[in-house]
Amino acid sequence: MSKQQFGVIGLAVMGENLALNIERHGFSVAVYNRTAQKTDAFMAERAKGKNIKATYTLSEFVASLEQPRKILLMIQAGKPVDIVISELKPLLEPGDIIIDGGNSHFKDTARREKELAAISLRFIGLGVSGGEYGALMGPSLMPGGHPSAYQEVEPIVTKIAAQVEDGPCVTYLGPDGSGHYVKMVHNGIEYGNMQLIAEAYDLLKNGLELHPEHLHQIFSEWNATDELNSYLMEITAEILERVDTESGSFLIDVIQDDAEQKGTGRWTVMEALELGVPIPTIAAAVTARVLSSFKEERQIAAETLNGSGPRRYEGDSQALINKLRDALYCAQICSYAEGMELLDGGSKAYNFGLNLSEVARIWKGGCIIRAKCLNDIQAAFRQNPGLMNLLLAPQFKQKLLDRLSAWREVVAVMMELDIPAPAFAASLTYFNSYRRARLPQNLTQAQRDYFGAHTYHRIDKSGVFHTEWAALTEETSLQTGTTD
Ligand code: 6PG
After folding, report:
1. Rounded to whole angstroms, how far apart are CA atoms 162 and 366?
2. E-state strands within 408-483
3. What is the radius of gyration, based on Cα positions, of the chain?
């Protein structure tokens, strides 16, 4: 009996859709799910009549695959991945390939790759973006692992990925955890962009008191521009016009305002802090989600501290809407710039050898952060692979400076109206800090040296310096309250 070319373990939404996508492109598939009912339901409905073979034990699943076996795990990240790998290990043979398509932490991926390589099994950490629809019709795929493993799956992944004018949205990214690293940072940017859109919505809705239909129209118009065209902008416009069949209200108005997160945004921020790469817009977005989840506390604080609440903007509404559009462009470029900086930092720290232009290219289709501006990001890193920061690229420099006064004004207006602007303010501050040759951290250094003799550098000569800022007597310690 002929064997199947590809195996998928895990038939939740993503697993099912990827299995169907792979089969649609002419590859035979074997599937396995821990609960047999799920497999049966899939076979009876969506997989009916397709070249998909159901299996009910892992050994039956493994035996049904041609060698070297290519097995995609679409299961919950974390412990479950280790459990399934340990169950698969004794059944596999040297050269077989396990692909983890979940949102696993890149360090787990690196560990698993090493452990499996020691027993001659190959492992690919595959970032998959695009949600349910992307998985079925063409996701953006971010694979990392041994190049020989990628070569084996390349004919499949290049077919199932989203296709853009310059190729499929997949490429070999680098060794061990690099694919999941790129996916993690993708999600960080996703958080940043989503938060910025939410803040823009807040200003339009609460500062300008616009009706959802008008909001829909504005986001649709913005989506039609080269600067702001993106998947997130497109779905925002659609979301804003949806009416709730139950209440008759706009659905957006009945959705609870506490944002959840599965963890990739938080990992991005933790990683950035670890490596010392500034990503303030993304960090603000993660914090905004956390704060939003303090719903009960916010309700109490709204009564105690709110005063008049967000105020209405009294100026020229259309002029502010135009400025907001420009500010949103600048702030989103910061979100991408921060993400690319972190990719560069991670690539250097872990020897991933990432090609940032290629990363931008594979994000142009299929994924959640796909946007027209990725053409410029791709070009910026293609022209200058050693680019220090996206903000300096000719594709962006002048555009940002031309829109700076709008960006500044939007942040000022939001502060004035008591409308929180964590990501907008963080992005503007990032831009302004980055383009300052001298920041006030000379004072920070002086303070550190004062209380801890931590030393400082001077602007006029090289070396390390310390100043005796105060005579160290018992009396001064007591006066300043120091205990050490
Ligand atoms: C994607 C998404 C996806 C992510 C969900 C939920 O690229 O398709 O990033 O992988 O898991 O969007 O993420 P949060 O629960 O963290 O918002």
Report:
1. 5
2. none
3. 26
DSSP assignment letter at 1:
-
Q: Which domains does the chain have, with CATH numbers?
A: 6-176 (3.40.50.720), 183-434 (1.10.1040.10), 441-480 (1.20.5.320)
The full DSSP string for 282-324 is HHHHHHHHHHHT-HHHHHHHHHHH-TT-SPPP-S-HHHHHHHH
Ligand 1 centroid–CA 297 distance in Å is 27
Do 165 and 196 form a contact (C-beta atoms < 8 A)? no
Q: Is 183 a catalytic residue?
A: yes
- Average pLDDT for residues 179-187, to the nearest whole number? 98
**Ligand 1 contacts CB of residue 17 (under 6 A):** no
> What's the rounded Cα separation, in Å, for the pair 251 and 121?
49
Question: For residue 204, how many other CB atoms are within 10 A of its CB?
Answer: 23
Q: Confidence class of residue 474 from pLDDT cuts 50, 70 and 90?
A: low
Question: Could you tell me the pTM of the whole model?
Answer: 0.96
Ligand 1, atom nearest to 263 Cα: 16
- Residue 420 has a pLDDT of 97
Q: Is the CB of 368 under 6 A from ligand 1?
A: yes
